[in-house]
Structures are given as structure tokens and as C-alpha cells.
Amino acid sequence: MSNNPSATTQVISFRVTNEMYNTLLRRAKKQELKLSDYVRSKVIWDAKRSHKKKEE
């Protein structure tokens, strides 16, 4: 990773309950992903899915 300031990563913060966190952690482990990677892929997937619904 470079220290290029123009290549910033967007940070999404949101509150999760302990139960939600444990569920996410369990699912991430099942797919052998780090929690941050799992959440990122899930957010992107949900965004694409909701975008498709809007187009229909």
C-alpha cells in the first residue's frame, strides 16, 4: 500500500449491536475473511442489489 493521499479508502461507520457483530464475525470466519473485508463486500453487494431493483 502506498502513502498516496489521493488513493484514500472510504470509511463507513455504523453502529452494530453485540448480537449483529457476533453474527457478522461468525459469517466472516465461515468464508475465511477478515471482518472488515466481509463487511465491505456485503455493503458493496447490497448496494448493487438495491441498484438493480431501482432499475426494474
From TrEMBL:
It comes from marine sediment metagenome. This is Uncharacterized protein.
